[in-house]
Fold:
Amino acid sequence: MLACETRGQAPAAEPPPAEAGAEEGGLFRGIRPTLGPVRWRASVTSEYRLQMLPDRGATRSFMEFGNLNASSFVFQPWFAQVSGDLGFARSSAGGGEGGSAKSFGLTGGGSVSLFPASRFPFSARYSASDSRASGEITGADYRSTQLGLRQSYRASDETQYTVSFERSELTGATVGRDVLDVFGVSASGRREVQSFDLDGHWSGNAGGANGTQSNIARLNARHSFVPASNLNVETLASYNRQEFEQATPTLRSALSNRFVQLASFARWRPEEDEPLYDEKHPMLLVGGLRLTAIGTEQDAGSTENLSASGSLGLTYNINPLTRLSANASLTQASTTGGAGGMSSSQNANISYTPLPIQLRDYTYNWNLSGGGSNSGGSGQGQQTLSALASHQVSRILPLAESSQIAFSVGQGAGANLTSSRTAANPSAGSSGFTLTHNAQANWSLFGETGTQAYVSLSGSDARSFGTVRNEFQLVNLQATRQAPLSALSFWTANLTVQGSRQRTESGTGAATASTPAGFNVTTFGNVTYQHRRVFGVPRLRLFASYVANQAQQQSRAQGDLNAPRQAVTDAVEARLEYQIGKVDTRLTFRSANVEGKRNTLLFLRVTRQF
Structure:
């Protein structure tokens, strides 16, 4: 039952005749737990480090790291693959407000993989590491341990199942004890006209010194039914629960959110010999049913919202340039305190988009659209009429055989008229006018030597006038480049800078938005430079980089195992590397903004490989 042919290796010799009683071994009959050839690797590292911390001053430390790694297999590579490593981290530090200190710790881990090429592979791994050995700027030293278990199974009909468990634990004098457990399940398969996907995730995090705890559970399921090329039905189910607790010696705060949804959507496009088919006027029908439940619990209060809705939509092409779309929905909702009730909405929209007009080297586009909507329920109602017109001029200007600039400018104007009724005000109305402007220019280059570059600058301005005045501006700069400077050096860049500003005023002129008057600027991306022979010295390499991420979203509290313990918004690094045989020497300078504080690190590291 167990058979395997390892590509690139000679077939295993026939096992010796089994001893008496061996036939009772079942699945593992003829398998002997012998260890194959062992591959050894080892390294020893010495490092001198100078670190500048804003709250502790300058600290100097000397560190030594060692690691021994062994890898092999049991019986045959297809049966079990094993590896393990053992190391140490020793340091002596002085200077700063903390005085001098010495420390010693063991590091290491191991992994095992059973039946890695089979339909039911299993893997387990464990590792213990020290943050000082990574060379990263953290502002605090800590130990990290990780445990991972994973079992997969692929059935004969290609349906796949996976179960996994991972634990990440950080411990240190400053970070406390931060434990994150993540449990996951997944399944996917396809049978004729049906397919399904299931993904489950649970994480629990005890946030260590900051006193934060979280429990997050997510479950998403999808079922697809495609009985014909022009008909498909998608059914989605999701469950999401988030629980956060912040505890301090003087305050305890708890927040819990829950979201449950079951939705089904169907799309049908009539084809030849089917009802409603019209070759000159193709149409698309879309229908859906949705059930949702949203609950929030915070400290002593809680809210619950339930809703059930159904919708039906139609898209109809009057001609190749004119399209009509309409939608109607019915919703039954209930909320905490007995509010809610039945509501309905209907809307229709027609759009006209003529073919582009070529004016010498320029391309001119324009379109018109208009529509109306009606909604009502529980003694309230609202009707809206809207119209929109926009146009745009664009041009592509070749600069060379492989370089060009493309730019465009556009303008749009819209108007809306709204009439509403409530129990307190049976007749109320409002009107508004919106004016938008946008411009964009981008430059692209594709060189024969591997040079690639793209720079885009865009800006938009939107202003609304009427009962409510609103202003919104957005400026976005994106630059991407990969270019060899010589046969030994090249640089890459991927940087985005975005600024936005918004202001809202009521009809009386009073500001209702608390946004700042200036632009809110965010930056993210990286720029790197590499040189393989600095100053003409063979094997002397230079690496320099700048990384910015002012919109960081990773969080261990959200169940992200790879999220950093502290938020780094920007970092500059320059590194010189020199290798002779098995000796690797590295001089590194790093400066990073860690949670609003500038940390600087300079270290010299020498590593000997064995």
About this structure: Residues 1-24, 508-515 have pLDDT under 50 and may be disordered.
